[in-house]
Amino acid sequence: MPLTRSQAQALAKAHPVISPWWVVLGQVGVGGLATLLAWLIFGDSVAKSVACGALAVVLPAALFARGLTSRFARANPGMAVMSFFVWELVKIVVTIGVLFAAHRLVKDLNWPAMLVGLIVTLKVYWLALAFKRKPKPV
User: Fold this and answer.
1) Which end of the chain is more exposed for a tag (fewer CB within 10 A), N or C?
2) Are residues 54 and 34 in contact, defined by beta-carbon separation less than 8 angstroms?
3) Within a 10 A sphere around the Cβ of 114, how many other Cβ atoms?
């Protein structure tokens, strides 16, 4: 059964949308913090590796957010769905590209540290859900 206009508005107000830019900002913060901690505890080499892992999450997520919030992606529901899949593919390709570039460009890359940076930064999606905006009282 379809919702009435007032029911749809009440549902939207009760469950606010999380901005993809909020998630990207959180990923930048967590990735930066992980890199700083790695540098303080383990030194330069490990910190560079952690930063590469964080970059492999942040850069594709920023491109994905940009693509999903573009005017083209919001033109109609069909374009929104197509845009989602196209930008998800771009995100995967860029992630693989960043990991490959890190392997080729970073001397003494520490793979476990890079994976820690990648995983810690990926977990921001869960934090964004946990700390999403509270609905405004009616």
Assistant:
1) N
2) yes
3) 24
Please give the angle made by the CA atoms of 97, 101 and 102, to the nearest 5 degrees: 120
| Integer Cα distance of 2 and 4 in angstroms | 7
pLDDT tens by residue, 48-105: 999 999 999 999 999 999 988 887 767 777 888 888 899 999 999 999 999 999 999 9
Using CA atoms, how far apart are residues 97 and 14, in angstroms rounded to an integer?
A: 39
CB atoms within 10 A of CB 36: 13
- Per residue in 12-32, pLDDT (tens digit) is 777 777 778 888 999 999 999
How many angstroms separate the CA atoms of 33 and 17, rounded? 26
